[in-house]
Amino acid sequence: MDNILTINALTKNYGRIRALDGFDLEVNKGVVFGLLGPNGSGKTTTLSILLDIVKPDRGSFRWFEEPPSHHSRKRIGATLEYPVFYPYLSAVRNMKIIARIKEKPFGDFEEILKLVGLYDRKDDKFRTYSMGMKQRLAIASALIGNPEVLILDEPTNGLDPQGIADIRNLVIRIANEGKTIILASHLLDEVQKMCSHVAVLKRGKRLFAGPVGEVLVVADTIELAAADMKMLTETLIGFRGVRDIRREGEYLTARLDKGVLPEDVNKYLASQGVVLSHLAMRKRSLEEQFLELLKEGE
């Protein structure tokens, strides 16, 4: 895959506070990459550096395999924090002002507004918009000039469940058109639903980075069932490759030690005369993995 962004050892201090601590990352073309972490983890600082709003103390980054420049910046659309527009102007008039600032043509406004679901309200004043509509206009403005990369900072922040769903579906639609999207969020469930890749940050450090699918398949918990659950429990206790054996409803659950596979457990139980009626891996949610990573990073 083509490399869109490379970050090397970015470090940024605000007085005594280290917002970024040797942060590394690679983002490839066509992915939806989520920067996930609690408040103060360095997400917004990272995006601000990437947009040349904030200068790092150390480290570097490259867009499109080149050093950052005015030319590369023109290939990127972005929204940072709360959407700010002229409240007494319509969506179209606000977008015209932004297009002039970006030195971009006016021609694609209608298509953009249709994409974000604001075409029918394009002539209404910004102050009449709901928070969700304001966020969608911010994304529309970032799409002016058809950028290759879209950067979104907490795009669902402050929205109700319907507004969150609208933004999520919009991000997915934009991604399906082939754009690379980098978004920051503290909403674990939304990152799981929107992103193909994720980096987990804590206190400016990267704890994990990779495909969301890899997080989901890091599943070391198995479910088991047999006709004789008591015998299954007693036999399983004798296998050294498992721990934390628990009864949960109709199943037993157990954590596998590193390097132990479900088939190893099945083979052992069969050798002891226990025939399983159910054996499955239990996938951990992104939230469970996220919280575990944060705990490991302490």
The CATH superfamily of the largest domain is identified as P-loop containing nucleotide triphosphate hydrolases
Q: Count of helical segments?
A: 11
Which secondary-structure class do the elements indicate?
alpha/beta
Low-confidence stretches: none
- CATH topology heading of the largest domain: Rossmann fold
Physical arrangement of strands within the biggest beta sheet: 5-6-7-3-8-9
- Give the overall average pLDDT: 89
Q: For the record, what CATH class of the largest domain applies?
A: Alpha Beta
Kindly give the count of domains: 2
The major beta sheet can be summarized as: 6 strands, mixed
Percentage beta strand: 25-35%
Termini gap: 34 Å
CATH architecture of the largest domain: 3-Layer(aba) Sandwich
Series of secondary-structure elements, N-terminal to C-terminal? EEEHEHEHHHEHEHEEHEHEEHEH
Gyration radius, rounded: 24 Å
How many strands appear in the DSSP assignment?
Answer: 13
Shape: elongated
User: What oligomeric arrangement do these chains adopt?
Assistant: single chain
Please provide a brief summary of the model:
The chain has about 300 residues and is an alpha/beta fold.
Keywords:
298 residues, alpha/beta, Rossmann fold, Alpha-Beta Plaits, four-stranded antiparallel beta sheet, 34% helix
Can you tell me about this structure?
- There is one protein chain.
- The protein is of the alpha/beta class.
- It folds into two domains: 3-216, Rossmann fold (3-Layer(aba) Sandwich), CATH 3.40.50.300; 220-282, Alpha-Beta Plaits (2-Layer Sandwich).
- It is built from eleven helices and 13 strands.
- It has helices spanning 43-50, 70-73, 91-102, 109-115, 131-142, 161-176, 188-194, 212-217, 229-237, 262-271, 286-296; strands at residues 3-14, 17-28, 32-36, 58-63, 76-79, 149-153, 180-185, 197-202, 205-211, 221-226, 242-248, 251-256, 276-282.
- The strands form three sheets. Strands 5-6-7-3-8-9 form a six-stranded mixed beta sheet, with helices on both faces.
- β8 and β9 form a beta hairpin.
- The chain is elongated, with a radius of gyration of 24 Å.
